[in-house]
Protein backbone atom coordinates (compact mmCIF):
# COMPACT_ATOMS: atom_id res chain seq x y z
CA UNK A 1 0.00 0.00 0.00
CA UNK A 2 1.42 3.38 -0.94
CA UNK A 3 0.76 6.91 -2.08
CA UNK A 4 2.40 8.51 -5.10
CA UNK A 5 2.89 12.28 -4.99
CA UNK A 6 2.76 13.39 -8.60
CA UNK A 7 2.84 17.14 -8.09
CA UNK A 8 -0.71 18.29 -8.70
CA UNK A 9 -2.25 15.11 -7.34
CA UNK A 10 -1.56 12.42 -4.73
CA UNK A 11 -2.73 8.95 -5.75
CA UNK A 12 -3.37 5.97 -3.51
CA UNK A 13 -2.44 2.60 -4.99
CA UNK A 14 -1.74 -1.01 -4.10
CA UNK A 15 0.88 -3.19 -5.77
CA UNK A 16 0.51 -6.97 -5.55
CA UNK A 17 2.03 -10.02 -7.20
CA UNK A 18 4.72 -10.23 -9.82
CA UNK A 19 5.41 -11.38 -13.38
CA UNK A 20 4.76 -9.65 -16.68
CA UNK A 21 2.74 -8.37 -18.29
CA UNK A 22 1.72 -6.20 -15.35
CA UNK A 23 -1.96 -5.33 -15.02
CA UNK A 24 -3.32 -1.98 -13.86
CA UNK A 25 -6.95 -1.71 -12.74
CA UNK A 26 -8.86 1.57 -13.25
CA UNK A 27 -12.23 2.10 -11.55
CA UNK A 28 -15.19 4.18 -12.69
CA UNK A 29 -17.03 7.38 -11.75
CA UNK A 30 -17.59 7.88 -7.98
CA UNK A 31 -15.93 4.54 -7.27
CA UNK A 32 -12.46 3.49 -6.09
CA UNK A 33 -10.00 0.62 -6.34
CA UNK A 34 -12.12 -1.55 -4.02
CA UNK A 35 -14.14 -2.24 -7.18
CA UNK A 36 -11.50 -4.76 -8.18
CA UNK A 37 -11.64 -6.84 -4.99
CA UNK A 38 -13.07 -9.70 -7.08
CA UNK A 39 -10.13 -9.55 -9.51
CA UNK A 40 -6.98 -8.64 -7.54
CA UNK A 41 -6.38 -12.01 -5.80
CA UNK A 42 -6.99 -14.01 -8.97
CA UNK A 43 -4.85 -11.81 -11.20
CA UNK A 44 -2.04 -11.34 -8.66
CA UNK A 45 -1.52 -15.10 -8.60
CA UNK A 46 0.16 -14.77 -12.00
CA UNK A 47 0.84 -11.09 -12.61
CA UNK A 48 1.96 -7.91 -10.95
CA UNK A 49 -1.29 -6.04 -10.31
CA UNK A 50 -1.60 -2.34 -9.53
CA UNK A 51 -4.96 -0.90 -8.47
CA UNK A 52 -5.27 2.80 -7.73
CA UNK A 53 -7.80 5.48 -6.83
CA UNK A 54 -8.17 8.11 -9.54
CA UNK A 55 -7.95 11.79 -8.61
CA UNK A 56 -11.02 12.90 -6.74
CA UNK A 57 -11.92 9.35 -5.72
CA UNK A 58 -11.26 7.09 -2.76
CA UNK A 59 -8.11 7.95 -0.84
CA UNK A 60 -6.53 10.06 -3.55
CA UNK A 61 -6.52 13.85 -3.45
CA UNK A 62 -9.27 15.85 -5.13
CA UNK A 63 -7.83 18.91 -6.92
CA UNK A 64 -10.27 21.54 -8.12
CA UNK A 65 -9.89 20.48 -11.77
CA UNK A 66 -8.37 17.85 -14.04
CA UNK A 67 -11.18 15.34 -14.56
CA UNK A 68 -11.21 14.90 -18.33
CA UNK A 69 -10.23 11.42 -19.55
CA UNK A 70 -6.97 12.61 -21.12
CA UNK A 71 -5.89 14.28 -17.87
CA UNK A 72 -6.79 11.20 -15.87
CA UNK A 73 -4.78 9.13 -18.35
CA UNK A 74 -1.84 11.48 -17.82
CA UNK A 75 -2.14 10.79 -14.07
CA UNK A 76 -2.01 7.08 -14.78
CA UNK A 77 0.98 7.41 -17.11
CA UNK A 78 2.83 9.38 -14.42
CA UNK A 79 2.04 6.71 -11.83
CA UNK A 80 3.27 3.91 -14.10
CA UNK A 81 6.48 5.82 -14.70
CA UNK A 82 6.91 6.52 -10.98
CA UNK A 83 6.72 2.83 -10.08
CA UNK A 84 8.74 1.82 -13.15
CA UNK A 85 6.27 -0.54 -14.81
CA UNK A 86 6.90 -1.97 -18.28
CA UNK A 87 4.00 -1.76 -20.76
CA UNK A 88 0.81 -2.77 -18.96
CA UNK A 89 -2.49 -4.44 -19.65
CA UNK A 90 -4.80 -1.62 -18.52
CA UNK A 91 -8.26 -2.73 -17.41
CA UNK A 92 -10.83 0.03 -16.91
CA UNK A 93 -14.50 0.04 -15.93
CA UNK A 94 -16.91 2.73 -17.18
CA UNK A 95 -14.99 6.02 -16.80
CA UNK A 96 -11.93 3.79 -16.44
CA UNK A 97 -12.63 2.37 -19.91
CA UNK A 98 -12.31 5.87 -21.33
CA UNK A 99 -9.15 6.47 -19.29
CA UNK A 100 -7.38 3.31 -20.48
CA UNK A 101 -8.38 4.15 -24.07
CA UNK A 102 -6.88 7.63 -23.66
CA UNK A 103 -3.77 6.00 -22.20
CA UNK A 104 -3.48 3.83 -25.32
CA UNK A 105 -3.87 6.83 -27.63
CA UNK A 106 -1.83 9.44 -25.76
CA UNK A 107 0.81 7.17 -24.15
CA UNK A 108 1.06 4.14 -26.45
CA UNK A 109 4.50 3.14 -25.17
CA UNK A 110 2.99 2.57 -21.71
CA UNK A 111 0.43 0.05 -22.98
CA UNK A 112 0.62 -3.61 -23.98
CA UNK A 113 -3.14 -4.00 -24.28
CA UNK A 114 -6.34 -2.54 -22.82
CA UNK A 115 -9.58 -4.00 -21.47
CA UNK A 116 -12.51 -1.54 -21.30
CA UNK A 117 -15.39 -2.91 -19.18
CA UNK A 118 -18.82 -1.47 -20.08
CA UNK A 119 -16.96 1.72 -20.98
CA UNK A 120 -18.34 5.26 -20.85
CA UNK A 121 -17.97 6.00 -24.56
CA UNK A 122 -19.83 5.32 -27.77
CA UNK A 123 -23.01 6.97 -26.50
CA UNK A 124 -25.46 7.93 -29.24
CA UNK A 125 -25.87 11.67 -29.71
CA UNK A 126 -29.61 11.37 -29.06
CA UNK A 127 -29.02 9.61 -25.73
CA UNK A 128 -26.49 12.19 -24.64
CA UNK A 129 -28.81 15.08 -25.45
CA UNK A 130 -31.88 13.49 -23.89
CA UNK A 131 -30.31 12.00 -20.76
CA UNK A 132 -26.68 12.73 -19.99
CA UNK A 133 -26.39 16.46 -20.72
CA UNK A 134 -29.54 17.37 -18.74
CA UNK A 135 -28.28 15.16 -15.92
CA UNK A 136 -24.94 16.95 -16.00
CA UNK A 137 -26.67 20.30 -15.63
CA UNK A 138 -28.80 19.00 -12.77
CA UNK A 139 -25.74 17.73 -10.93
CA UNK A 140 -23.75 20.88 -11.61
CA UNK A 141 -26.39 23.43 -10.67
CA UNK A 142 -28.38 21.68 -7.96
CA UNK A 143 -27.14 21.77 -4.37
CA UNK A 144 -28.55 18.27 -4.15
CA UNK A 145 -26.57 17.05 -7.14
CA UNK A 146 -25.73 13.77 -5.46
CA UNK A 147 -29.37 12.74 -5.68
CA UNK A 148 -29.34 13.50 -9.41
CA UNK A 149 -26.25 11.29 -9.76
CA UNK A 150 -28.06 8.50 -7.93
CA UNK A 151 -30.83 8.65 -10.52
CA UNK A 152 -28.31 7.56 -13.14
CA UNK A 153 -27.00 4.74 -10.98
CA UNK A 154 -30.55 3.43 -10.59
CA UNK A 155 -30.43 2.47 -14.29
CA UNK A 156 -27.22 0.44 -13.99
CA UNK A 157 -28.67 -2.77 -12.57
CA UNK A 158 -30.83 -5.71 -13.54
CA UNK A 159 -33.24 -7.69 -11.32
CA UNK A 160 -30.39 -10.17 -10.81
CA UNK A 161 -27.94 -7.55 -9.51
CA UNK A 162 -27.07 -8.19 -5.84
CA UNK A 163 -28.74 -5.64 -3.57
CA UNK A 164 -25.54 -5.23 -1.56
CA UNK A 165 -23.74 -3.89 -4.62
CA UNK A 166 -26.38 -1.22 -5.11
CA UNK A 167 -26.11 -0.05 -1.51
CA UNK A 168 -22.30 0.05 -1.66
CA UNK A 169 -22.29 2.01 -4.92
CA UNK A 170 -24.91 4.48 -3.69
CA UNK A 171 -23.00 5.24 -0.50
CA UNK A 172 -19.87 6.07 -2.49
CA UNK A 173 -21.84 8.41 -4.76
CA UNK A 174 -22.99 10.30 -1.68
CA UNK A 175 -19.39 10.62 -0.49
CA UNK A 176 -17.98 11.87 -3.80
CA UNK A 177 -16.97 15.58 -3.87
CA UNK A 178 -19.53 17.66 -5.77
CA UNK A 179 -16.99 19.16 -8.19
CA UNK A 180 -15.79 15.66 -9.11
CA UNK A 181 -19.33 14.48 -9.81
CA UNK A 182 -20.03 17.04 -12.51
CA UNK A 183 -16.53 17.58 -13.90
CA UNK A 184 -16.12 13.89 -14.74
CA UNK A 185 -19.39 13.84 -16.68
CA UNK A 186 -18.50 17.11 -18.37
CA UNK A 187 -15.16 15.68 -19.49
CA UNK A 188 -16.75 12.50 -20.77
CA UNK A 189 -19.69 13.92 -22.68
CA UNK A 190 -19.71 17.72 -22.97
CA UNK A 191 -16.19 19.15 -23.21
CA UNK A 192 -14.64 20.27 -26.49
CA UNK A 193 -12.31 17.24 -26.53
CA UNK A 194 -14.86 14.66 -25.38
CA UNK A 195 -14.92 11.24 -27.02
CA UNK A 196 -17.79 9.73 -25.03
CA UNK A 197 -20.40 10.62 -27.64
CA UNK A 198 -20.50 9.42 -31.21
CA UNK A 199 -19.20 10.24 -33.77
CA UNK A 200 -16.28 11.62 -31.76
CA UNK A 201 -15.95 8.19 -30.12
CA UNK A 202 -15.40 6.47 -33.46
CA UNK A 203 -12.61 8.78 -34.54
CA UNK A 204 -10.74 8.78 -31.24
CA UNK A 205 -11.00 5.06 -30.47
CA UNK A 206 -9.80 4.16 -33.95
CA UNK A 207 -6.44 5.60 -32.87
CA UNK A 208 -5.90 2.74 -30.40
CA UNK A 209 -3.25 0.57 -32.05
CA UNK A 210 -2.92 -2.03 -29.28
CA UNK A 211 -5.05 -5.15 -28.71
CA UNK A 212 -8.40 -4.39 -27.07
CA UNK A 213 -10.72 -6.74 -25.17
CA UNK A 214 -13.99 -4.96 -24.41
CA UNK A 215 -16.94 -6.15 -22.33
CA UNK A 216 -20.40 -4.64 -22.77
CA UNK A 217 -23.72 -5.21 -21.06
CA UNK A 218 -25.37 -4.32 -24.40
CA UNK A 219 -24.42 -6.70 -27.26
CA UNK A 220 -25.25 -3.99 -29.81
CA UNK A 221 -22.68 -1.74 -28.18
CA UNK A 222 -20.12 -4.54 -28.38
CA UNK A 223 -20.84 -4.93 -32.09
CA UNK A 224 -20.35 -1.19 -32.58
CA UNK A 225 -16.98 -1.17 -30.82
CA UNK A 226 -15.75 -4.15 -32.85
CA UNK A 227 -16.04 -1.87 -35.87
CA UNK A 228 -13.40 0.56 -34.56
CA UNK A 229 -10.75 -2.00 -33.60
CA UNK A 230 -7.39 -1.84 -35.37
CA UNK A 231 -5.43 -4.75 -33.90
CA UNK A 232 -6.44 -8.22 -35.15
CA UNK A 233 -6.29 -9.75 -31.65
CA UNK A 234 -9.00 -7.39 -30.43
CA UNK A 235 -12.33 -8.80 -29.30
CA UNK A 236 -15.65 -7.35 -28.12
CA UNK A 237 -17.94 -9.34 -25.81
CA UNK A 238 -21.61 -8.60 -25.18
CA UNK A 239 -23.13 -9.92 -21.94
CA UNK A 240 -26.86 -9.46 -22.31
CA UNK A 241 -28.64 -9.54 -18.96
CA UNK A 242 -25.71 -8.15 -16.98
CA UNK A 243 -25.73 -4.86 -15.14
CA UNK A 244 -23.16 -2.12 -15.60
CA UNK A 245 -20.86 -3.60 -12.93
CA UNK A 246 -20.54 -6.89 -14.76
CA UNK A 247 -17.07 -7.69 -13.39
CA UNK A 248 -18.62 -7.70 -9.92
CA UNK A 249 -21.79 -9.54 -10.88
CA UNK A 250 -20.03 -12.31 -12.86
CA UNK A 251 -16.47 -12.28 -11.48
CA UNK A 252 -15.46 -15.89 -12.06
CA UNK A 253 -16.47 -15.80 -15.72
CA UNK A 254 -14.99 -12.36 -16.19
CA UNK A 255 -11.66 -13.36 -14.61
CA UNK A 256 -11.39 -16.52 -16.68
CA UNK A 257 -11.99 -14.74 -19.99
CA UNK A 258 -9.60 -11.93 -19.07
CA UNK A 259 -6.80 -14.28 -18.00
CA UNK A 260 -7.14 -16.46 -21.10
CA UNK A 261 -7.01 -13.41 -23.36
CA UNK A 262 -3.95 -11.99 -21.62
CA UNK A 263 -2.19 -15.37 -21.85
CA UNK A 264 -2.73 -15.37 -25.61
CA UNK A 265 -1.50 -11.82 -26.26
CA UNK A 266 0.75 -11.76 -29.31
Looking at this protein, list some descriptive labels:
Rossmann fold, single chain, alpha/beta, six-stranded mixed beta sheet
Tell me roughly what share of residues is in helical segments.
Answer: 40-55%
Q: Low-confidence spans: pLDDT under 50, at least 5 residues?
A: none
Q: Tell me the count of domains.
A: 1
Overall body shape = globular
CA-based gyration radius: 17 Å
Main β-sheet, in a few words?
Answer: 6 strands, mixed
Classify the beta-strand content into a percent band.
15-25%
Q: Got a strand count?
A: 8
CATH superfamily heading: Alpha/Beta hydrolase fold, catalytic domain
The CATH class assignment is Alpha Beta
Structural class call reads: alpha/beta
The CATH level-2 architecture is identified as 3-Layer(aba) Sandwich
Terminal residue distance: 32 Å
Q: Numbering strands along the chain, what is their spatial order in the largest sheet?
A: 1-2-4-3-5-6
Overall pLDDT metric: 96
**CATH fold name, please?**
Rossmann fold
Helical segment tally? 11
Secondary-structure element order, N to C = EEEHEHEHEHHHHHEHEHH
How does this structure look, described?
The protein has 266 residues and is an alpha/beta fold. The chain has one domain (2-263): 3-Layer(aba) Sandwich (Rossmann fold), CATH 3.40.50. Helix content is 42%, strand content 15%. The protein has 11 helices and 8 strands. The strands form 2 sheets. It has a 6-stranded mixed sheet. Strands 7-8 form a two-stranded parallel sheet. Helix 4 packs antiparallel against helix 7. The protein starts with a strand and ends with a helix. The mean pLDDT is 96.
Amino acid sequence: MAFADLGEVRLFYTDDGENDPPIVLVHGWTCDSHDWSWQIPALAAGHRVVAYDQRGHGRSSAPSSGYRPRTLANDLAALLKRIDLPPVVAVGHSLGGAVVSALAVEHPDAVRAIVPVDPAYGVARETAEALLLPLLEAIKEDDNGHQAALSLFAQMYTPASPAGLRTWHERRVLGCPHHVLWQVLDGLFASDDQFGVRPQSDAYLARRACPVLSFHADPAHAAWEAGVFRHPYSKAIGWEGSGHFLHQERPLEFNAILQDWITGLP
